[in-house]
Amino acid sequence: MKIIQHLGEYWMLMAKVFRLPDRQRMFWRQYSRELEKQGLQSLPIVIVISLFIGAILTIQAKINTENPFLPTYIVGLLTRETLLLEFSSTILCLILAGKVGSNIASEIGTMRITEQIDAMEIMGVNSANYLILPKIMAFVTMMPMLVIISTTIGLIGGWAVGAFTDIITVADYLVGIQYAFNPYFVWYGIIKSLFFAYVITSLSAYYGYTAKGGALEVGKASTNAVVNSNILILLLDLVLSRLLL
Hints:
The protein has one domain (28-244). Helix content is 83%, strand content 0%. The protein contains nine helices and no strands. Helix 1 crosses helix 6 (127-164), helix 4 packs antiparallel against helix 9 and helix 6 packs across helix 8.
């Protein structure tokens, strides 16, 4: 029964969120701030993680394909496909759910328990629309860019393994990442990331918006947001992979 209650409250909240903003200028101001907070401030962690994951994937692919019957370019091919199909969309969103999701849930939850949201409602402001819509729109906008950057940096990490070690030659790696390239896989990752970005922001906002009690409840809301976002991302990944591939 709790699941049905949460679903009902979630969709009622989303109905309030997705309305035309009362003040367009204020919405765009909030939107630009969220672009920086959720997108640009996530760049360092995206770059660092993608660089190391690209290098690790290349090393592991080389170790696990040590076979004279396999072409040498298969290492670059495996690295590229793994980054495009799973890491730069699904795994990256699982990581960002911990950063962006917990931030949104704690920010809105703090505003709820300090009665700032109640004050907005008394003044006639659609608090759900004002607080949540810019966050959803900003993260959905930035996520495809983060996916592309992550894929690019991951491939550079793999190239660095060839350039600075003797595990694989740069020439073999470059042939591998170009071999039988399917542009649709790029769109596949971007499409998935749009769904995941919406799940992270909307679910985190819901848990923060419905938080009750004190500071302890804000922490619980943040934890619930991250855990449930990750579960839904994995479930959606399964469904979308079946539908899109």
